[in-house]
Amino acid sequence: MFGFFRKARPDTSAGAARDRLQILLAHERSGRAGPDVLPLIQRDILESIKRHMRIGDDNVDIRIEPGDDFSTLEINIELPGTSAPRATVPG
Amino acid sequence: MGKIIVVTSGKGGVGKTTSTAAIGAGLALRGKSTCVIDFDVGLRNLDMIMGCERRVVFDFINVIQGEAKLNQALIKDRRLDNLSILPASQTRDKDALTQDGVEKILDELREQFDYVVCDSPAGIERGAQMAMYFADEAVVVTNPEVSSVRDSDRVLGLLSSKTRRAETGADPVKPHLLLTRYDANRVAKGEMLPLDDILEILAIPLLGIIPESTAVLRASNVGSPVVLDGKSTAAKAYEDAVSRLMGEQIEMRIQKPERPGLFQRLMGREA
Q1: Residues of chain B contacting A8 with CB distance shorter than 8 Å
Q2: Where does the pLDDT of residue A43 fall: very low under 50, low under 70, confident under 90, or very high at 90 and above?
Q3: Containing H/E element for B73?
Q4: For residue A49, what pLDDT is reported?
Q5: Coil, helix or strand for A63?
Q6: Given an 8 Å threshold on Cβ–Cβ distance, is B157 in contact with A29?
Q7: Optimal mutation site among B145, B148, B149, interface A, most CBs of chain A within 10 A
Q8: Strand runs (DSSP E) across chain B, as ranges?
Q9: Quick check: B140 and B204 in contact, CB under 8 A?
Q10: Does position A83 have pLDDT exceeding 90, yes or no?
Q11: Which chain A residues contact residue B157 at CB under 8 A?
């Protein structure tokens, strides 16, 4: 019967351990995927756009925003020229 | 062809060597020919936990460098005749652990044995990387404690990137969580991370839960793998883990917290 109250109690030290781990590991895992994958994705996107229009190497900006429940991959592509509109593709 | 299993954790002192000895002996008890290998060059201890420290003549590095044949370095267990131990070198530099040398020995061992269980050193340096590099499956030993869970997460990252299976694009190394030193009473009091939280964080299948047990120190005192005492809760938990490693479906025995008696309730529950 006391178990019910214990489970509902958020301020146990074990609860603090879980919360700290979840925040830290979300950060560490995104860092782990980051340096390897991001430049490759950036290169692939640049290559496929270059096949169809003229674009500078630094016109693709790509980043991962780590979050608690999910992370977002944000890709901003700047298209130069007068007729081409500035396109933003949220990922 | 035998299976290569690495017992790893990142963090030291969580029970890698105890678990290697218990799993190795447990597999042998189940009739599987098994070899346990110590990868901790310079700090070998598997020989003591297995109780064969006075029978070491040649070691892993001697075999890599061609100074001894593999069968000269293998020590046959005196209790189980299908169990062998390959000790680490106590004196050599760990750079002597070359990838080619390790591969040659593991290839030879998997011809002779059903299971080759590699006891990784702590950390993520060369010895630990060599212990995991050729593995088919990994037993990630974790304590219900923040630094151990964090290090296990790091090791899982390495298993999925810095192994032969990862580098050649083969099926990934199969990870198993072995939760050790689990104390259901402290979990019930909110003092220890519960199983569910650890499973949610690490997100790998559970191989077993080894309860905190006095039998583990007793077994190490006398140099006998803890499964050989047969009766303790830890021995039973390791036996179950071995069955699961062999692919059997076994229900998880979860130790129930002790209910305080009337006397304890009246007197308060200060530990």
Answers
A1: none
A2: confident
A3: helix B70-73
A4: 86
A5: strand
A6: yes
A7: B149
A8: 3-8, 34-38, 75-76, 83-86, 115-119, 137-142, 174-182, 206-211
A9: yes
A10: no
A11: 29, 32
